[in-house]
Design a protein that fits this description.
Blueprint: E1 7-11, E2 19-23, H1 29-37, H2 49-63, H3 78-89
Antiparallel strand pairs: 1-2
Length: 92
């Protein structure tokens, strides 16, 4: 059991200038993240806390026009991630 008290901050891109604090309880993290975005009616994905943080960092860097390099094995979902962010977050 992980008893750490680390704080995870989630930047909600749908509500400008807001953040949500999520404590590191792995059993509740996905539930809390889904509750934050349930009004968006997005398709359900398996999101880990690590992936949520990475997505938040990508969004923050993109907003500030800082280049982001997405790398991974063939077929791991790089293009799907960019498509998802562009369509559902930036509404491109």
């Amino acid at each position: 059991m992980d008893y750490s008290k680390h704080l995870i901050i989630f930047f909600n891109s749908q509500i400008p200038d807001t953040i949500s604090a999520l404590y590191r309880d792995r059993t509740k993290l996905e539930y809390l993240a889904r509750r934050l975005i349930e009004k968006l009616e997005l398709p359900k994905y398996a999101l880990s806390g690590d992936n949520l943080i990475k997505m938040a960092l990508i969004l923050l860097k993109a907003r500030e026009n800082i280049p982001v390099i997405i790398c991974g094995d063939a077929g791991c979902g790089k293009s799907s991630l960019i498509t998802y962010l562009a369509r559902n977050v930036y509404e491109i």
